[in-house]
Amino acid sequence: MAGVTESFYDRVGGEPTFRALVDRFYEGVAGDPPLREMYPEEDLGPAADRLRLFLEQYWGGPKTYGETRGHPRLRMRHAPFVVTPTQRDRWLHHMLGAVDTLGLPEAEDAELREYLVRAAQFMVNAFE
Length: 128
Ligand code: HEM
Known about the structure:
By secondary structure, this protein is an all-alpha fold. The protein has one domain: Orthogonal Bundle (Globin-like), CATH 1.10.490.10. The protein is built from eight helices and no strands. Helix 2 (15-30) packs across helix 7 and helix 7 packs antiparallel against helix 8 (106-123). The protein is globular, with a radius of gyration of 15 Å.
């Protein structure tokens, strides 16, 4: 597909780009004990898949997330976790660092960062 109807997902390179983003993000999480401790599973692989499939769907790629997990309801799904502004900042630090490594075109880079900052703020559900 080409031209103005092409999705953001396609414009940034499709699945390999989202895989790279999420893999780098989780490398950061794995090396950040206060953040890592929030993730219930010993293996971060399944959490990485859920985040990748969600982001792919959000940006116009395959709808696998919805088919396997249902409606995202992300704020509700984060309710069991104490997401403070400090944890948000840790999450964003690793995620925006992962975006840095993608080398996206300027417009897509800015759009992705704005979304992530907004989404992370939305997930805050506790204050220190
Ligand atoms: C603000 C800081 C955030 C923290 C500390 C956080 C933490 C977590 C934790 C601990 C989980 C459970 C891991 C698992 O899937 O087993 C999770 C799941 C998830 N998070 Fe976050 N998260 C944050 C922000 C976000 C944002 C901004 C997004 C989306 C843009 C997001 C998307 C997801 C998705 C899609 C799942 C899996 C939901 C499902 O079960 O289907 N998270 N998060």
